[in-house]
């Protein structure tokens, strides 16, 4: 069996092992996928040990994505811009390539699974942390009309927008500068939902027929999904589809086969 794993801290609630086992079963690939509780002070050591045991690739999750970016010997263009790596691939020369599949995961869930056309749309991205940095370039590459990145700490939104401005129409602002603006899609990339909170935004930012998407996932509706229902969003979605899609893209990078995601999403919804 070929060895892969997800590394993070905490890690016990990660659904990645279940997802990748389903992919392995579906494709017949000889993949074994475990979970590693990463040592906060020795991420590089944990990675080295895993490779020493014959490991071929890792998914990297909170809080190690930036460290994985620094550790990788080479980076995909997407990972380079994101400043974060969620997929490490062991190359034939034993060097490590870092990639980031979060953005493609979000784009595929929105466009393929949900049928939302990003081209020409006005998008509000809430948050300017690592989660948002990982997805902003792939979103811009879909040619939305514009993306406004709004963050509680405005300065972080400005600098993130500046860093990706050559990929499309994008600007940063504070949450308190949104009055009078309107969007076809609002994506929540903040960590507010972990505390059951919603970033404070004006009621009027969601256009009639607009969609809400929370990058977080929980087995009940997330706080931001709830905000979407209350504000009459045409659809209000959580991030489960994104989670499965980013995993599928990692699997493709490792194995050269893109698994079917819909049966796995359906299985996890049960
Ligand atoms: P992650 O890697 O999950 O993105 P992060 O880099 O710590 O984590 O970023 C967390 C994001 O959630 C930030 O954009 C943060 O806003 P600040 O930059 O102002 O801290 C945002 N956030 C967290 N709690 C929030 C809340 N209650 N309301 C609004 N934004 C919040």
From TrEMBL:
<feature type="active site" description="Proton acceptor">
    <location>
        <position position="65"/>
    </location>
</feature>
<dbReference type="GO" id="GO:0009073">
    <property type="term" value="P:aromatic amino acid family biosynthetic process"/>
</dbReference>
<dbReference type="GO" id="GO:0008652">
    <property type="term" value="P:amino acid biosynthetic process"/>
</dbReference>
<feature type="binding site">
    <location>
        <position position="86"/>
    </location>
    <ligand>
        <name>shikimate</name>
    </ligand>
</feature>
<dbReference type="Pfam" id="PF01488">
    <property type="entry name" value="Shikimate_DH"/>
</dbReference>
<feature type="binding site">
    <location>
        <position position="215"/>
    </location>
    <ligand>
        <name>NADP(+)</name>
    </ligand>
</feature>
<comment type="function">
    <text>Involved in the biosynthesis of the chorismate, which leads to the biosynthesis of aromatic amino acids. Catalyzes the reversible NADPH linked reduction of 3-dehydroshikimate (DHSA) to yield shikimate (SA).</text>
</comment>
<feature type="binding site">
    <location>
        <position position="217"/>
    </location>
    <ligand>
        <name>shikimate</name>
    </ligand>
</feature>
<feature type="domain" description="SDH C-terminal">
    <location>
        <begin position="239"/>
        <end position="265"/>
    </location>
</feature>
<dbReference type="GO" id="GO:0019632">
    <property type="term" value="P:shikimate metabolic process"/>
</dbReference>
<dbReference type="Pfam" id="PF08501">
    <property type="entry name" value="Shikimate_dh_N"/>
</dbReference>
<protein>
    <recommendedName>
        <fullName>Shikimate dehydrogenase (NADP(+))</fullName>
        <ecNumber>1.1.1.25</ecNumber>
    </recommendedName>
</protein>
<keyword id="KW-0028">Amino-acid biosynthesis</keyword>
<dbReference type="InterPro" id="IPR011342">
    <property type="entry name" value="Shikimate_DH"/>
</dbReference>
<feature type="domain" description="Quinate/shikimate 5-dehydrogenase/glutamyl-tRNA reductase">
    <location>
        <begin position="117"/>
        <end position="192"/>
    </location>
</feature>
<dbReference type="GO" id="GO:0009423">
    <property type="term" value="P:chorismate biosynthetic process"/>
</dbReference>
<feature type="binding site">
    <location>
        <begin position="127"/>
        <end position="131"/>
    </location>
    <ligand>
        <name>NADP(+)</name>
    </ligand>
</feature>
<dbReference type="InterPro" id="IPR022893">
    <property type="entry name" value="Shikimate_DH_fam"/>
</dbReference>
<comment type="similarity">
    <text>Belongs to the shikimate dehydrogenase family.</text>
</comment>
<dbReference type="InterPro" id="IPR046346">
    <property type="entry name" value="Aminoacid_DH-like_N_sf"/>
</dbReference>
<dbReference type="Pfam" id="PF18317">
    <property type="entry name" value="SDH_C"/>
</dbReference>
<keyword id="KW-0057">Aromatic amino acid biosynthesis</keyword>
<comment type="subunit">
    <text>Homodimer.</text>
</comment>
<dbReference type="GO" id="GO:0005829">
    <property type="term" value="C:cytosol"/>
</dbReference>
<dbReference type="GO" id="GO:0004764">
    <property type="term" value="F:shikimate 3-dehydrogenase (NADP+) activity"/>
</dbReference>
<dbReference type="InterPro" id="IPR041121">
    <property type="entry name" value="SDH_C"/>
</dbReference>
<feature type="binding site">
    <location>
        <position position="102"/>
    </location>
    <ligand>
        <name>shikimate</name>
    </ligand>
</feature>
<feature type="binding site">
    <location>
        <position position="239"/>
    </location>
    <ligand>
        <name>NADP(+)</name>
    </ligand>
</feature>
<dbReference type="InterPro" id="IPR013708">
    <property type="entry name" value="Shikimate_DH-bd_N"/>
</dbReference>
<keyword id="KW-0560">Oxidoreductase</keyword>
<feature type="binding site">
    <location>
        <begin position="14"/>
        <end position="16"/>
    </location>
    <ligand>
        <name>shikimate</name>
    </ligand>
</feature>
<keyword id="KW-0521">NADP</keyword>
<feature type="binding site">
    <location>
        <position position="61"/>
    </location>
    <ligand>
        <name>shikimate</name>
    </ligand>
</feature>
<feature type="binding site">
    <location>
        <position position="246"/>
    </location>
    <ligand>
        <name>shikimate</name>
    </ligand>
</feature>
<feature type="domain" description="Shikimate dehydrogenase substrate binding N-terminal">
    <location>
        <begin position="6"/>
        <end position="88"/>
    </location>
</feature>
<feature type="binding site">
    <location>
        <begin position="151"/>
        <end position="156"/>
    </location>
    <ligand>
        <name>NADP(+)</name>
    </ligand>
</feature>
<dbReference type="InterPro" id="IPR006151">
    <property type="entry name" value="Shikm_DH/Glu-tRNA_Rdtase"/>
</dbReference>
<comment type="pathway">
    <text>Metabolic intermediate biosynthesis; chorismate biosynthesis; chorismate from D-erythrose 4-phosphate and phosphoenolpyruvate: step 4/7.</text>
</comment>
<dbReference type="GO" id="GO:0050661">
    <property type="term" value="F:NADP binding"/>
</dbReference>
<dbReference type="InterPro" id="IPR036291">
    <property type="entry name" value="NAD(P)-bd_dom_sf"/>
</dbReference>
């Amino acid at each position: 069996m070929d060895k892969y794993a997800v590394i993070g801290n905490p890690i016990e609630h990660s659904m990645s092992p279940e997802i990748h086992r389903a992919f392995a079963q579906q494709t017949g690939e000889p993949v074994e996928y475990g979970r590693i509780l990463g040592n906060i002070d020795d991420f590089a050591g944990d990675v080295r040990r895993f490779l020493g045991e014959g490991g071929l690739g890792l998914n990297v999750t909170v809080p190690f994505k930036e460290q994985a970016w620094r550790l990788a010997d080479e980076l995909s263009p997407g990972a380079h811009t994101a400043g974060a790596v969620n997929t490490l691939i062991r190359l034939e020369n034993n060097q490590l390539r870092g990639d980031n599949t979060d953005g493609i995961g979000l784009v595929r869930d929105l466009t393929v699974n949900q049928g939302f056309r990003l081209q020409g749309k006005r998008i509000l991205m809430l948050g300017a942390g690592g989660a948002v940095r990982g997805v902003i370039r792939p979103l811009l590459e879909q040619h939305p009309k514009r993306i406004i990145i709004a963050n509680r700490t405005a300065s972080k939104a400005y600098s993130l927008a500046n860093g990706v401005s050559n990929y499309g129409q994008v600007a940063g602002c504070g949450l308190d500068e949104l009055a009078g603006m309107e969007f076809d899609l609002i994506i929540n990339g903040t960590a507010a939902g972990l505390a059951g909170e919603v970033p404070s935004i004006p009621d009027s930012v969601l256009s009639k027929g607009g969609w809400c998407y929370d990058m977080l996932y929980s087995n009940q509706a997330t706080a931001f999904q709830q905000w979407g229902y209350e504000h009459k969003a045409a659809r209000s979605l959580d991030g489960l589809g994104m989670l499965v899609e980013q995993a599928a893209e990692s699997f493709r990078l490792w194995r050269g086969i893109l698994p079917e995601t819909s049966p796995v999403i359906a299985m996890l919804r049960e």
